[in-house]
C-alpha cells in the first residue's frame, strides 16, 4: 500500500488491514520456509506495508 492510501483510511480500517497483512505475511513466510515461493519480493513488500500501517497508527495515537 502507498502512504497516500493509508492516510485516507480510518483508524478502525487501519487496525483491520494491519491484522490481515500480518496474517498474510506470516503465512507467506511459512510457505517460503517449506518450499521457496515464486516471488520472494512479496515478503519484503508485505513487511514494509505492515510497517507503514503500524507507523501511521502510532502517529495518530500521539496526536
UniProtKB/TrEMBL annotation:
Task: Tell me where on the tree of life, at the top rank, the source sits.
Answer: Bacteria
Task: Give the taxonomic lineage as stored in the record.
Answer: Bacteria, Pseudomonadati, Bacteroidota, Flavobacteriia, Flavobacteriales
Q: Which GO terms describe its cellular component?
A: ribonucleoprotein complex; ribosome
Q: What HAMAP family has UniProt attached to this entry? A: Ribosomal_uL29
Q: Do you know which CDD domains this protein is assigned to? A: Ribosomal_L29_HIP
Q: Which UniProt keywords apply?
A: Ribonucleoprotein, Ribosomal protein
Query: In its UniProt record, which GO terms are filed under biological process?
Result: translation
Taxonomic source organism: Flavobacterium endophyticum
Pfam families for this protein: Ribosomal_L29
Any one Gene Ontology MF annotation carried by this entry is: structural constituent of ribosome
Concerning its family, UniProt says:
Belongs to the universal ribosomal protein uL29 family.
Which SUPFAM superfamilies does its entry note?
A: Ribosomal protein L29 (L29p)
Give me the segments passing through the membrane: none
The answer to whether the entry has keyword Ribonucleoprotein is: yes
What protein name is recorded for this chain? Large ribosomal subunit protein uL29
Amino acid at each position: 500500500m502507498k502512504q497516500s492510501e493509508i492516510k485516507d483510511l480510518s483508524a478502525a480500517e487501519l487496525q483491520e488491514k494491519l491484522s490481515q497483512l500480518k496474517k498474510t505475511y506470516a503465512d507467506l513466510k511459512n510457505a517460503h520456509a517449506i518450499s521457496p515461493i515464486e516471488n520472494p519480493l512479496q515478503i519484503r513488500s508485505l513487511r514494509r506495508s505492515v510497517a507503514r500501517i503500524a507507523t501511521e497508527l502510532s502517529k495518530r495515537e500521539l496526536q
